[in-house]
Amino acid sequence: MADDDVTPEQLADQIRQLKIEDILLSTVSTLGQLESPTFAHDDLNRTQAVGAIDPARLNVNGGSIAFGGPFGATGARLVLMLANEMERRGVELGLAAVCGAGGLGCAIVLERG
């Protein structure tokens, strides 16, 4: 996805251009929001909604509740599980997202090299 000489801003721009169909495995839990044009505009600074996610590619090994929701370690565990599943299935791109207290959240796009 990125060359060695790509700045963080350029990498962020490349990630913003990804379509949901480009992500082969994901661990996202806010499905309704991804289809909402209002959420896309107001919260993601996008001109259109991200779109629907194929349930067969979502939380393929369960989310944080499925493995006990280890406080403070959910993000690390989701990323590790995603990386292992990407290797097992031989897929190139994956997405993990986790919520945080007070409405915070973060996401990571993984690429197998």
Task: Give an overview of the whole structure.
The protein has 113 residues and is an alpha+beta fold. The chain has a single domain (8-111), classed as Peroxisomal Thiolase, Chain A, domain 1. Helix content is 33%, strand content 15%. The chain has 4 helices and 3 strands, in the order H-E-H-H-H-E-E. A hairpin with a 5-residue loop joins strand 2 (93-99) and strand 3 (105-111). The protein is globular. The mean pLDDT is 75.
Number of strands: 3
Using only C-alpha atoms, the radius of gyration works out to: 14 Å
> Under CATH, the topology is which?
Peroxisomal Thiolase, Chain A, domain 1
User: Under the CATH scheme, which architecture would be assigned?
Assistant: 3-Layer(aba) Sandwich
Strand order of the largest sheet: 1-2-3
- By CATH reckoning, the class would read Alpha Beta
Shape: globular
Q: Biggest β-sheet, characterized?
A: 3 strands, mixed
Percent range for helical residues?
25-40%
Q: End-to-end span in angstroms?
A: 9 Å
Structural class: alpha+beta
β-strand amount: 15-25%
